[in-house]
From TrEMBL:
Protein name per the record: Transmembrane protein 104 homolog
Region (Disordered) location: 98-117
Species, as recorded: Trichoplusia ni
Biological classification of the source: Eukaryota, Metazoa, Ecdysozoa, Arthropoda, Hexapoda
One Pfam family from the record: Aa_trans
Keyword Transmembrane annotated: yes
Length: 507
């Protein structure tokens, strides 16, 4: 019986994910890169120039650091959740083993066996590897169930669902609009009322008697096509998107390289055209509004981290990933702010060629116009899978997920995940209010408030459960309570900045 217990103990130390479902740390970092870098980066150059190159550089680097800090909080909390699950499983195995012993031996022998079974829980140098790990994927919803009270869980799920459903809606609409703008002919200059744009024919060749497809019709076809292509990924795990991630990652690097190279070429050829100030605090709210999506990945980190092989230096690798993204953002913003006298809110619009006979520039125009399609096509499945997993955590017991009905697990939750955003964006093309609320208030909660409250609660819970001697090797380097207080103060400041930004837009 004791050998069986130790055999199960060895199984507890093995990774939960199958070896065939795992990927290297570099593939995992590509996933995180794809998730962070989206269309929000295209709004950075205009906001960068408005707030001033000096203030914007400091702000962007600071936001990158704050996002990385909270990402380490998510990793630490995930390791704590793994430790709690392992501890509970060990206690169950111990009770079953002791009950079996008591049926065959007297009470004294049972006490000796009980002492043997307690040995694995004694603190020591090898204990952290048995408890704290990142092998099991524990979504933010499961962490909230473990470490939050009822009010905290309710607040968490409301915030997360608003953010993720809003993200899926924004992504769907952005891709469909990008395709519509590429396929349809440009809106005539004499049509200034944007409310009439959707009713215009998609092609100029359409006659008044037979207008054919309108721009709205094209938008809806593009929306359904996009969801039909990306939606099925929600029925699987994030590992199934590996080759899609690698392909679109190459497209992102190519798009950024083209924009940065063309801006540098313009700077060399005709000199700086833009004259952004060094500091302009009035542009700070706009800059933060543009950066709200720039470093967001926390809601999907657990699903991306769990399948990674070799997580020993995960924190260091994640730091380099953030540093690379920050450098990309700075190159993009600096070159754009000085290369162009006037910057469009969407940076790709500054690269529309004036010479239609130049085939190369035409190709670049179409490629950059479709850049949101490339970026969001990979983020959509990851966001959808994350939302599906958290909805399952909300309504199902994830410790016995396989015991539920197949239709409930494999069909109902994926459909509930994808259908509401499609329905919303099918009938509501203009979702500017949703963008402001989702990216600002819910985004601040997901990126700052939730990871901080989770890690504080997880530390307290694991200390009471396992004792202070069992060390979490995935503990955040920012473990002092002062860091948590600092993050919360910054979060309130973010809400103030976002509110000012929204008020200025409406006034």
């Amino acid at each position: 019986m004791l050998r069986r217990f130790w055999g199960v103990l060895r199984l507890l130390r093995m990774p939960v994910t199958e070896s065939g479902d795992q990927y290297s740390v570099w593939v995992g970092l590509i996933y995180i890169f794809n998730l962070i870098v989206g269309t929000g980066a295209l709004t950075l150059p205009a906001a960068f120039a408005r707030a001033g190159w000096g203030l914007s550089t400091i702000s962007l680097m600071f936001l990158a650091f704050m996002s990385f800090l909270n990402a380490t909080y998510v990793i630490e909390t995930m390791a704590c959740a793994n430790a709690v699950f392992k501890w509970k499983r060990l206690q169950t195995i111990k009770r079953e083993s002791i009950q079996d012993h008591e049926s065959d031996e007297d009470q004294a022998t049972s006490r000796n066996s009980h002492g043997d079974l307690e040995e694995p829980l004694v603190c020591g140098e090898t204990i952290p590897s048995r408890y704290y790990s990142l092998d099991r994927r524990v979504e933010l919803g499961e962490m909230a169930n473990l470490f939050f009270n009822k009010l905290g869980r309710t607040t968490f799920y409301c915030t997360l669902c608003i953010y993720l459903y809003g993200d899926l809606s924004i992504y769907s609409a952005a891709v469909a609009k990008s395709v519509m703008d590429v396929v349809c002919t440009p809106v005539p200059a004499n049509v200034t009322d944007s409310r009439l744009w959707d009713e215009l024919p998609c092609f100029n060749s359409s006659s008044p008697e037979h207008p054919g497809y309108t721009r709205l019709d094209t938008y809806r076809v593009a929306l359904l096509t996009f969801v039909g292509a990306m939606g099925p990924f929600v029925f699987f795990n994030v590992q199934k998107t590996k080759y899609l991630q690698l392909f679109t990652s190459g497209m992102r690097w190519l798009a950024f390289t083209i924009m940065i190279s063309m801006a540098i070429h313009l700077l060399i050829g005709r000199g700086p055209q833009g004259r952004p100030p060094a500091f302009d605090v009035t542009g700070m709210p706009t800059l933060f509004g543009a950066c709200v999506y720039s470093f967001m990945c926390h809601h999907s980190l657990p699903g991306l981290i769990a399948p990674i092989r070799g997580k020993t230096r995960l924190g260091l690798h994640l730091f380099f990933d953030y540093a690379l993204i920050a450098i990309f953002y700075l190159l993009l913003a600096f070159t754009g702010a000085f290369a162009f006298a006037q910057l469009s809110d969407l940076y790709t619009l500054n690269f529309i060629p004036t010479d239609s006979d130049n085939i190369f520039l035409e190709v670049v125009e179409y490629f950059l116009a479709l850049f949101p399609v490339f970026t969001l096509s990979t983020s959509f499945p990851i966001i959808a899978i994350t939302l599906r997993n958290n909805l399952q955590s909300l309504f199902l017991d994830t410790t016995r997920l396989e015991s539920y009905n197949f239709i409930l697990r494999k069909l109902v939750f994926p459909i509930v995940t994808v259908f509401p955003p499609v329905l919303l964006t099918y009938y509501l093309e203009d979702i500017s209010i949703l963008i402001e609320f989702t990216g600002s208030y819910a985004g601040t909660g997901i990126q700052y408030f939730i990871p901080t409250f989770l890690v504080v609660s997880a530390r307290r819970h694991c200390s009471n459960l396992l004792g202070l001697g069992v060390v979490n090797k995935y503990k955040s380097p920012f473990s002092h309570v002062a860091w948590a207080i600092f993050v919360l103060l910054w979060s309130f400041m973010c809400i103030i900045l976002v509110s000012v930004n929204i008020f200025e837009k409406k006034s």
